[in-house]
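so my prof wants the structure for this chain in the tokens format not the other one, which i didnt know existed until like an hour ago. anyway here's the sequence
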Amino acid sequence: MNNSSFYNSIGYKVLMALSGFFLMFFLVQHLSINMLSVFNEEMFNETSHFMGTNPVVQGLLQPVLLIAVLFHFIMGIFLEYKNNKARTINYAFNKPSANSSWVSRNMIISGLTVLSIFNFTFY
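here's what i got, hopefully its the right format
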């Protein structure tokens, strides 16, 4: 794969998908640690202490996570802009449910939901 592969629509969408996968991995990891509180309070406290005091997690992974969130957010806006600009005629809609799933039509809702949950994890 040459360097210009990521400077086209497919490349941007691959980067968008990879950043989304990274963010999903964070959410699953976060959920797993929080689920420890239900099953083993001591293990949850140890894991939480480790995550809160580990310099790699605090100094390296938190900024990486913040950059990934910003990248995913900005890339989503950028892709939407490029797609709308490239399309001179709007899509014809018959029945939304016949052409696509509810999830694919409402990604902005799920994205804002995850963003709001993500926002509360830092407070």
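also thought this was worth mentioning. Residues 3-90 form one domain.
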